[in-house]
Amino acid sequence: AQSVTQLDSHVSVSEGTPVLLRCNYSSSYSPSLFWYVQHPNKGLQLLLKYTSAATLVKGINGFEAEFKKSETSFHLTKPSAHMSDAAEYFCVVSVLSGGSYIPTFGRGTSLIVHP
Amino acid sequence: DGGITQSPKYLFRKEGQNVTLSCEQNLNHDAMYWYRQDPGQGLRLIYYSQIVNDFQKGDIAEGYSVSREKKESFPLTVTSAQKNPTAFYLCASNAQTGGSSYNEQFFGPGTRLTVL
Q: Residue A90 in contact with residue B43, Cβ under 8 Å?
């Protein structure tokens, strides 16, 4: 069975400092992995996705993630946090189920950015 | 301007009433999904549909029903059998062409349902 675990429910950083949001996955097959961002009372927006073309994936708003098969991880990073980055972040693994790919979501990490 | 629309944005329901949440997409996507979001629990899958006139239960389908009569539309009915329906509901779609796992989902803005 496939699953995804976000290791921190909350991460707090100061503006201008690096961001690290951790995600581990479990998959019997080569996984498809995604990071989404959700601002309060809004829908989710795709930040980036891993499609096996490159292990380091660059996304929008300066975010990037590195796929590490040996560690079964797909951590999200950003060199310098901005106040507008404060939001909920979801790591997602796409699971093959009954011939279709069904996304499975982590529980989310709330990023808090202090001035 | 392509995307997914959900209506209403806020919905209030009295206990014992059924309510229907609307989801429409003009992205020509085959697959559509309904999720429920509660604080600290991420998104949980209620129902999904890969094609018109077909849909499957997700992890928490009890107390909910759906239909998929048109490719663009995937309404969700929250029935009186759902004991704790207060939550944020999100609709999503993706293009499942060729069975690719790389297609990301596109989300609507959500409907917040409150039971009075």
A: yes
B87 at interface of A, judged by CB pairs closer than 8 A: no
Which site among B36, B101, B106, B111 would you substitute to test the A interface, given the most A Cβ atoms closer than 10 Å to its Cβ? B101
Q: Does B85 touch chain A (CB under 8 A)?
A: no
At A76-108, the pLDDT tens digits run: 999 999 999 999 999 999 876 666 778 889 999
If you ran DSSP here, which 8-state letter would residue B5 be given? E
Q: Among all chains, which residue has been given the structure tokens 């018109």?
A: B52
User: Is pLDDT above 90 for B100?
Assistant: no
Distances (CA, A) of B26 to A48, B94, B103: 23, 11, 17
Residues of A in contact with B21 (CB under 8 A): none
The phi and psi torsions of B55 (rounded to 5 degrees) equal -155, 160
Mean per-residue pLDDT for B66-93? 95
